[in-house]
Design a protein that fits this description.
By secondary structure, the chain is mainly alpha-helical. It has 2 domains: 52 residues; 236 residues, MetI-like fold (Orthogonal Bundle), CATH 1.10.3720.10. 77% of the residues lie in helices and 0% in strands. The relative contact order is 0.11.
């Protein structure tokens, strides 16, 4: 009996040592990445949170939520927040829905599929500066679009300094992101079990039923992933807008990134940190809501 206990203890100790060794090996592989994230992302954001709750960098006196109150009282911040939320609310769903439609078109038998795919993937290979140059040629006051509309007797319009400016940027955003999203959806469509679709065909199911009851349910994780990528991309459209119209664009193009960039130039770290925290919290809430929706919608498929 004592010998069995000794052997059992040695086996348990050996299993424990194996787990510790496996953990240390995993730590060696993931350690550099974790250290990089800790030093370059987590620690700096911790400093940003600290600045959001103190009076100034030179006087680290805790002031509670006063910096956030001052931020929401700022007219420029309210305009920037409204424009950013409006842009994301329009651009992100369009980027998901249009990419899914394009993927479904390419899944069917249509002529010129290769050329069609190349057309939507080409923006991924074009530098941002070149894209902006093309858009300036198209939408400037003396641009191609105004020359075309002048043929029909329409007046010229400075598109980037009008109420249509955000529509121009949404078009640019979609042109840049649709190709990548489309490829993700095409890959997900290829992984849907063919047996289910064949059974649906035998049962006489319509194309609408197959899409909503089979395809869309299996696509729900990809829809979530594409939606998150599109959301992040919509917040990063500042580069294009900045190159198109500078630090202070037309009001409808003034985004949170413009506000934060201009605030950084004025060295107002408290306002800048508060805006960064608010932006991070809003993005976390939106992404958490997307995860919840996907979990409810795709639960039966995952099970």
């Amino acid at each position: 009996m004592r010998l069995d206990k000794t052997r059992g203890g040695k086996k348990a100790w050996a299993r424990f040592n194996a787990k510790v060794l496996d953990f240390l090996q995993s730590l060696c592989f993931i350690g550099p990445s974790f250290f990089g994230v800790l030093v370059f992302f987590i620690a700096p954001f911790g400093v940003v949170i600290f600045y959001a709750f103190v009076k100034s960098a030179m006087k680290p006196e805790f002031v509670g939520f006063q910096n956030f109150k001052n931020l929401f009282a700022n007219t420029a911040f309210r305009i920037a927040a409204k424009n950013t939320l409006t842009f994301s609310a329009v651009a992100m769903p369009l980027a998901v829905i249009l990419a899914l439609i394009l993927a479904l078109l390419l899944e069917s038998r249509i002529p010129g599929k290769s050329q069609f795919r190349t057309f939507f993937l080409s923006p991924m290979m074009v530098p941002v500066a070149s894209v902006v140059l093309v858009w300036q040629v198209l939408f400037s006051y003396n641009g191609v679009l105004n020359l075309g509309t002048a043929v029909f007797g329409m007046e010229k319009l400075d598109w980037l300094r009008s109420d249509h400016a955000q529509l121009v940027v949404i078009t640019l955003y979609l042109w840049k992101t649709l190709g990548y999203n489309m490829i993700l959806f095409m890959s997900a469509l290829a992984n849907i079990p063919k047996e289910l679709l064949e059974v649906a065909d035998v049962e006489g199911a319509s194309e609408w039923y197959k899409f909503f009851s089979i395809k869309l349910r299996y696509l729900s994780p990809t829809v979530l992933f594409v939606a998150i990528l599109s959301l992040i991309s919509s917040f990063k459209v500042f580069r294009e807008v900045y190159l198109l119209s500078g630090d202070y664009p037309y009001e409808t193009l003034y985004t949170l990134q413009h506000f934060m960039n201009n605030t950084f130039n004025s060295l107002d770290f408290q306002k800048l940190s508060s805006a960064a925290v608010v932006m991070a919290v809003v993005m976390v809430i939106i992404i958490a809501a997307l995860f919840k929706i996907e979990n409810v919608f795709g639960k039966d498929v995952e099970g």
